[in-house]
Amino acid sequence: MEITDATPAELRVWQAFALGEGVDFRESPDEDPRAGGSWGPERTVRAEVLRALLLNGPTRDGEIAGLKLTGARITGQLNLMYGTVEHPVRMRSCYFEETPNLYGAQVRALVLSDSCLPGLTAGTLRVELVLRITCCRITGPVRLAGAQIAGAFFANGAELGTPPAPDGSPPPDAPDPEAAREAVLQLNHAVIGTDVWAVGLVAHGQVRLNGASVGGQVNFDDAELNAPGGVALHAETLSVGTDLRAMRLRAHGTLNLSGARIPRHVNLAYARLSHPGGSALRASSCVIGELWLREAAPIQGAVNLRRSQLDLLHVPAEVWPTQVKLDGLAYQRLAPHLPAERRLPLLERETAGYLPQSYEQLAAAYRTVGDEAAARTVQLARLRRHRRTLPPYARIWGHLQDVTVGYGFRPMRAAGWLLVLLLIGALAFALHHPRPLKSDEAPDFNPVFYTLDLLLPIIGFGQESAFAPEGWYQWLSYLLVATGWVLVTTVAAGITRSLSRQ
């Protein structure tokens, strides 16, 4: 276009561009750009003028040209599709009447902070420095699928999408129905060189990061992701260089991190995750350094951690929901350190039923921190849970093993049974002495040591070989011999385990 076609407002922008100077049309620093539809011609700039500036604008030797525009109303569509912009683009607190189209474009830096837009189409956009939509109000989808940003992406304090009206009717600024079904932030398969900062982001719809690669950190601290009944954060196969932070996150819908690779922390401390009737957190097949849900609210909805690998799982017992999926989950340590009795109810909530591996994993975690008593409690709970899956006859034998020796994990219980049997045998044989086999060679009868001779399979006091009980006392002696073998062997095995651990 010819410069003679420009309005006074556009002439100010045109003249400032070559010098890289800013043009601020605002009447006050705190004015709301959402009221930009009523701004007059004195602060209106046509999108075609901006396009001409960015693609072929004037430059001056010794100066760094660039667009630095604040508080303007942009009419028409800013179409830079497949274009190459050699200058930084900074349009703060602006009001866009139509969705800018930067699909396939190349820019040095793109800053739209505090602006109001009906959407942003910028798939496969390439940015040499940073992309900022900080504190923007964007009612339609932000399409950045496949974008390549050498620096960071900033969406701090932005509000994306349109919240539903209280009566369920579409709000006045609602996007078209087709756009309403899209994710409000689309960074799927994007490549971010450093960080994604979305502190305080409010998203009325899905945030999509599946297949994205972020060189540094993803930060959703204090964010609010609203997709009731759907997926609030779709981040399958997300690759992060350091951490995924989401402290104090409020998510209505599924957090889907399946297949993600996050070497340090997934920090969901103080978060509120809610998806009743569905999965509130799905992090299956992940490789994560540490997963933190410290001080988080009780999760509403299922948690799926199947086949994931973690170094540390920091989840208080009261945070876990009523349904979990833990098949194949592997972790090294648990925090906070709790008694086994506090952790075991979680394994009862497994939707797939009894999973021996879950008990073995929990026992191994207790052994890692040296809590052998808790590990034995877990192993005993595993056998009791397994017993419920057996036929009736096997369950009877299991109950007997449990009551007598705690499946071998309570050896001191066997010692107690030995003492009870010793008292019963000593009392019975004291009331009715067995007859001596050789009356002239038999030692004096002692009911206590005679019972010990029957119970202890190795030690002999010469009583058992010298006397022969009759009638039901003989059957009592057989019972004492048989139970003695079992109980003494159990005690010996328990002592051996203790010595081997030391």
Characterization of this structure:
With 502 residues, this protein is an alpha/beta fold. Helices cover 27% and strands 25% of the residues. It is rod-shaped and about 140 Å long. The mean pLDDT is 88.
| Poorly predicted regions | none
Shape: rod-shaped
Helix tally equals: 10
Number of strands: 37
Task: Please state roughly what percent of the residues sit in beta strands, choosing from under 5%, 5-15%, 15-25%, 25-35%, 35-45% or over 45%.
Answer: 25-35%
Structural class: alpha/beta
Helix proportion of residues, in percent?
25-40%
Order of strands, widest sheet: 1-3-5-8-12-16-20-24-27-29-31-33-35
- Average pLDDT taken over every residue: 88
Our Rg estimate from Cα atoms comes to 37 Å
Largest sheet: 13 strands, parallel
What is this structure's SSE topology?
Elements: H1 8-17, E1 22-24, E2 44-46, H2 47-56, E3 67-70, E4 73-75, E5 89-92, E6 95-96, E7 106-107, E8 110-111, E9 116-117, E10 120-121, E11 126-127, E12 131-132, E13 137-138, E14 142-143, E15 148-149, E16 153-154, E17 159-161, H3 177-180, E18 185-186, E19 191-192, E20 196-197, E21 202-204, E22 207-208, E23 213-214, E24 218-219, E25 224-234, E26 239-240, E27 244-245, E28 250-256, E29 261-267, E30 272-282, E31 287-292, E32 300-304, E33 309-314, E34 324-325, E35 330-335, H4 340-348, H5 356-368, H6 372-387, H7 392-405, H8 411-431, E36 435-436, H9 447-455, E37 467-468, H10 472-501
Parallel strand pairs: 1-3, 2-4, 3-5, 4-6, 5-8, 7-11, 8-12, 9-13, 10-14, 11-15, 12-16, 13-17, 14-18, 15-19, 16-20, 17-21, 18-22, 19-23, 20-24, 21-25, 22-25, 23-26, 24-27, 25-28, 27-29, 28-30, 29-31, 30-32, 31-33, 32-34, 33-35
Antiparallel strand pairs: 36-37
Helix pairs in contact: 4-5, 5-6, 8-9, 8-10
